[in-house]
Amino acid sequence: MLKLIKQQWLTVLLVLSVGVTPALAQVQSAKPMAVIAINNYNDLSKDIGWVADMVGPPGTAAMIEAQGAQFAQMFDTTKPIGIVVQSDGVLGAKVLGFIPTNNLQQLVGMLALFGMTAQPTDGGLLELQTGATPVYIKEGQGWAFVSNNKETLANVPADPVPLLGGLEKEYDVAIKGNVDAVPPVFMQLAMSQVQAGLQASTAQPLPGETEQAFEARRAQAMQSMEEMQKALNDMKSLTVGLNIDQTRESVYFDFGFDFKEGSESARSMDYSDVTTNLSAFAGDNAAVTMSMAGKIDPIQGAQAAAQIDMVRDQALNQLENDPNIPTEELRAIAIKSVATLVDVVNGTMAAGEFDMAASMTMDDGMGAIGAVRAAQADSLEAVFRELVTVAKEQDPEFPPVQLDALKHAGATFHTMSIPIPPFDPQTQAIFGEAVDISVGMSEDYIYFGLGKGNLEKIKSAIDVSAANKGVEADVMKMEMSASKILTFAAEQAQDPTLQQAASAAGSKDKARMMIIPIENGAKFRMELESGVLKAISIGAQALQPQLDESPF
Questions:
Q1: The Cα angle at residue 31 between residues 254 and 517, in degrees rounded to 5
Q2: Residue 206 has pLDDT above 80, yes or no
Q3: DSSP string, 457-486
Q4: What percent of the chain has pLDDT over 70?
Q5: N or C: where does the chain have the smaller number of CB atoms within 10 Å of the terminal CB?
Q6: Which long-range contacts (CB under 8 A, 24 or more apart) does 382-391 make?
Q7: Whole-model pTM?
Q8: What gap in Å lies between CA 380 and CA 330, rounded to an integer?
């Protein structure tokens, strides 16, 4: 799954690189290559005012509204602004922008204040003198249409809003690129540039790189290139959007993409029926939670396993020939550890599912628990015991490990406690007099814990998760509670500003990152709830005196 996500995002970045080439076309296409949508003034100003009142001094929203009142007189404040970009059929782009207004002359007059004057030209158009590419303006019924191409303005729609495809309803500001409408020649050009870079980076071995490692690296680079080319061919569109959602009391940024119906890439993004058996490991009351779950595409899994095998072979070769390993016993256990771990990872890939969850608490010192589904996880048990034995032999001061400290739900747990010296009061304030660590393995899961009482928390999470086995889950979600984190930081630092920020965060205090499935694709969302914005504002106000005194 991680490899798949990496490939898809690399493909997205490649598409963005195409977007900034001086492009765009060999064949005329009715489908736009790009659409930009800006929400109507009424909704947008309310959203901006809502944020401004949270992060600014009292009355900020009213001040913004007053300053924008004259500006708003030029527009129909109930309709969005949009830009549509299409191929011109040669080597450029035709741009059509539309602004809702019944007062074109006032708009033109405002542009004149910025040195851009408009002069009448043929066809009843205005030509805007920008000092660069000519821009033409046509007045319509309730709209001003703007384009770099006169012919584009010859047949404008009476209502251009449908051209935005609903983007203006989903986001305050958004850009959508229809990758399948970009002429193939420019995609090929971008790919050739990437391929040239890869070939240059794999033209010869790196200093100290063995011939085997060099060949493995080159093969991996070429495979990645093929996968990227395939994903690019399958891609349909990508969307970037920013929205202020007063209903959710949050601000979020989306970066999404989808693939052509029926394509292999679309099938690999099948996030339907995602469930987890580890729900309690990402508890709602934690300061930080993380979870991932889903299916592993068989083709992607096989490709990932092949690359992991390459890495394993390189690692084993280095271990077998490393002169710095002091004993053959250490060499043997290191080789066994790497080989066993790779077998577990590849077995998990072959099983076709992944499931992991973890959380961190800060209410009684810092602690964490987590679990990962792993095929043949219990094969790591023998390796762990050997590692402990060798560690004790090599270092008599190695902290004592209590093997078989607990057996629960088919898992065997081992614990260790690392003392914290009394001359380190800050660390003691976080963990206590010692850092308690737990590791457990069952046939299908690996468990870990950190901090006071972590083993009991793991037991509880196992039992609660078992009682809620197969519940619906997010593909990927990471969530942080600003109030909990700031309260903990304030207690450690005895900082009143941090405490003030923690109080301001309140209950709407989450910062999150997550993957949201969409048809034939997904979107990656970063979201800040209102309490996080308030906390950031307090921190910024506290730093302002220092910034004012700065010489820069």
A1: 30
A2: yes
A3: HHHHHHHHHHHTTTEE--SEEEEEEHHHHH
A4: 92
A5: C
A6: 383/333, 383/336, 383/337, 383/340, 384/414, 384/439, 384/441, 386/333, 386/336, 387/333, 387/337, 388/414, 390/329, 390/330, 390/333
A7: 0.85
A8: 17
DSSP-based three-state secondary structure for 255:
strand
d(CA 542, CA 530): 19
In 196-249, where do the E strands start and end?
235-245
How high is the pLDDT of residue 65? 82
CB 431 within 8 A of CB 365: yes
Q: Tell me how far apart the alpha carbons of residues 269 and 266 are, in angstroms, rounded to a whole number.
A: 5
CA distance 288 to 359: 5
Query: How far, in Å, CA of 550 to CA of 527, rounded?
Result: 32
- Is it the case that residue 139 has pLDDT exceeding 60? yes
The Cα 40–Cα 454 span in angstroms is: 52
Q: Which residues contact 222 (CB under 8 A, 6 or more apart)?
A: 198, 202
Q: Which residues make beta-bridge pairs with 522?
A: 257, 517
How far apart (Å, rounded) are the C-alpha atoms in residues 413 and 402? 9
> Among 109-113, 122-126, 155-159, which stretch is predicted with the lowest mean pLDDT?
109-113
Kindly give, in sequence order, each residue whose CB lies less than 8 Å from that of residue 547, ignoring residues fewer than 6 positions away: none
